[in-house]
Give the backbone structure.
Amino acid sequence: MLVNGVWQQKWQPVQDQDNQGRFIRQTSSFRNWITRDGAAGITGLGGYPAQAGRYHLYVAYICPWASRTLMARALKGLQEIISVSVVSPKLTDQGWKFAGLGSNGQDELSHKTYLHELYSQVAPDFTGRATVPVLWDKHTHTIVNNESADIVRMLNSAFVELVDQGPDLVPADLTAEIDALNDYLYTYLNNGVYQAGFATTQTAYEEAYEKVFTALDTLEQRLSDGRLFLFGDALTESDLRLFVTLIRFDLAYYSLFKCNRNMIKDMPVLYRYMQRVLRLKGIAETVNVDHIKQGYYSIKALNPNGIVPKWPVAIFQ
Ligand SMILES: N[C@@H](CCC(=O)N[C@@H](CS)C(=O)NCC(=O)O)C(=O)O
């Protein structure tokens, strides 16, 4: 992580923990908004109007938070409007490394080697983790936002005058229910699996494990009335949040994070639901199984020798 803009080598014991060994995720620090006309958004400064070709997303395919921004970009037809760089899947001693698309392995856009260099360029005294996703403004060379929840909402509504495509992921009449379900999904499932994986006490692990499987059982039940998606026949933001965890579950969370009561393939309703979302236009391109495997099993704190298990499971069947 960065401390006062300087990279610290001892970053791998991932994130923070409380005195019971529970994993605590860092809160995001760049919270500006792109809006239709550049007016200030919910949490941040204005000055970021929706424009084609101006913004860029830095993502990792392994990262569920980054992947939900990629899903929103695909569903809303913004591939030509917002460009993307994908970092290398394996976490290095200096965090995320650009995938070397430009000559000499540097990012074509920033000419940097590591993501943390982007953070310290923008905020020379930045203290915190250099996380993906990063929404970057190519005009002012700055980070607009590094909170995926905000980015998904911006992509849902800010660009509609440029491209009016795809579902409204947060319809006004469902916003409160979506927010409530999102909170539940985050606490019990999206972050729950990480809390199981990064727990440093048996109690913290078992607490997280119970949350994860309580959520999966609840969702299996909710979806078993024949509905296509969490809120009925139309896809919403909550579906993006559920999908990103489901698609990584059998590949990484079941074994590496010890969420091993059962796999998603053993939960028929959730498995069919996952395949349904995966088949939506543009979604399969946001899932890179090889990156997911390589990336998770490169977390040294959990897997010091970096052995990547063999997989009997084909999630695209
Ligand atoms: N609140 C952030 C969380 C992002 C996050 O935790 N990203 C992870 C990858 S899944 C990361 O970049 N970790 C690098 C680190 O912790 O040093 C969001 O949802 O955008």
User: Anything to note?
Assistant: The longest helix spans residues 202-222. The first strand starts at residue 2 and ends at 3.
